[in-house]
Write a structure and sequence with these properties.
Blueprint: H1 3-9, H2 15-25, H3 32-46, H4 49-61, H5 66-91, H6 116-130, H7 133-145, H8 150-176
Helix pairs in contact: 1-2, 1-4, 2-8, 3-4, 3-5, 3-6, 3-8, 5-6, 6-7, 6-8
Length: 177
Amino acid sequence: MSLDALRERLPAYAKDLSLNLSSLASETLLSDAQKWGTFVASAHAVGQGDVVRAVEASAVAAGFSAEGMASAKAAAAMMGMNNIYYRSLHIMHNQEYRTLPARLRMNILASPGAPKTEFELWCLAVSAVNGCGACLDSHEAELRQHGVTNVQVQAALRIAAVVHAVSAVMRGETAAQ
């Protein structure tokens, strides 16, 4: 299934999401690797099957590399762990937990399989999906140090938001059947 096929399956009440999905697939503020990696990482962060399959098929059709695909999935996997951990530390009133070492393996950071800027962008998108303000701030600061502009960060956030919303609609429609 492609993004176009996914768009056709969206109900009429989600027309804005369909239009946004189409325009974001044509986004030019990000490189193709940045854009498709953001789509893949966001889809895997949400985990709705139809959306994951449509995003992956469209990314492959657009020439997104197997290495990029694996790296975007790794960003979703690692941030799935980190977002819960660091969001919890951020929310908890007892500041002592912030002084303790995380003791979580994050070896992928040393060699993510994609350029650092791309991987950071994908981690930012997943952090938005997972609602971790601490991680959003951390990855946004890193991206800015690497010359990524605010409109590029916004483009990644828009992709994450639309992928998340489309996934919610698809889950709801499946549940209603």
